[in-house]
Amino acid sequence: MAAECMVISLIVLAIFVCFFKTKRKKWAYSSLPLLVLPLANGIMSYFFKIVLKSEITLYCAFITVIVALIVACIWIGICSMTMITGKRTRIPYLGVMILFNLLLAIILITHYYNLAAPAAV
Questions:
Q1: What ranges do the domains of the chain cover?
Q2: Is the pTM of this model over 0.85?
Q3: How far is Cα of residue 63 from the mean position of the Cα atoms in its chain?
Q4: Cα torsion at 60, 61, 67, 73 (round to 10°)?
Q5: What pLDDT shows up at residue 2?
């Protein structure tokens, strides 16, 4: 899942660049919390495989995903209070951003859980 998370990160960076070039700097910076979870997972995966040369343990994957989810949700809340001005845009922003991070966290935890589970006979 490290490669998939890095692709997600590249897509979010492309969104950031598009917002930035269209002079919507607040929206550009408000899209950055979407990078936390995929980058944390990608960095953790590459760290385990390249530096430690071992498989990712379920415990480390779970802690990394949950901490990244908490950080992303706090950052989303801060962005919605400081950068998003209208209430009509704040609520959908909060909903979509948190839902994206929550679904990605569920997918990653399920993936690592299935990797750690012994094969059914």
A1: 2-116
A2: yes
A3: 14
A4: 180
A5: 85
